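Notes taken during the Thursday session

The instructor put the following on the board and asked us to keep it in front of us for the whole hour. The protein is Acylneuraminate cytidylyltransferase. We were told not to look anything up and to reason only from what is written here. First, the residues (251 in total):
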Amino acid sequence: MKHQKIGVIVQARMGSTRLPGKILLELDKNEKILDVLIKRLKLSKLLNEIIIATTPDARNSAIIETVKQHNVSFFIGSEDDVLERYFLAAKEFELNIIIRVTSDCPFVDPYIMDDMIEFYINNSYDYVKNFDEKTQYTRGFEIEIFNFKILERIYSQAKSRPEREHVTYYLRTHYNLFKTFNFNAEYLNKIEGLRLTIDKKEDLLICREIYKKMKKKGKPSNFSLFDIYELINEKPELMNINKHVQHKKIS
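Then, after some discussion, the predicted structure tokens were revealed:
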């Protein structure tokens, strides 16, 4: 089989409405959310490219500086047409297989990601994801995979505002047009109610506590979702920090 270039594209900007500038807030001393996310993505054995896709807004220059420190790639594209930004980033870096994660999920699991990439390569699905209406993985660990041809197709067919603002909205609302697989988490004993995506200050606080405790366990960035479950089982009171935060709809 011809070599396929595999890349993750992370859309990132400073203009968050619920927690402004959140991706450059610290999880620990001198370690920002974006720092931790990039370090964890680098643990993947199958990614050829890590791309942070941002916008021309002057506030985002701080994101670019952080990206440069990690020697990974960045792309600057449309503020509002996020699908276009994503498509043009994938095109510029000549990606064949595209992984989508979001910048407010610093603990996204590179081991789950590699399992999903292998599954995608070895099967004939258009779109593989690890969540549905009732997420099978803990919030904050969502991963989506599709190829460039599929991205090109949705880029040309998506017309409405939601379809342009959210990269995979068209894919997820036109299931009949695509061969889709929901990657299962049956081997994990999921902890109900655990939420590790950062939308509010309380989310930031629980992620800080988990990150510091993982460091003390000797796992500064290479911990898995299973390791987090072990920690929460040891210290279930951590979940009280953000238990009242309402989930934002996955976009």
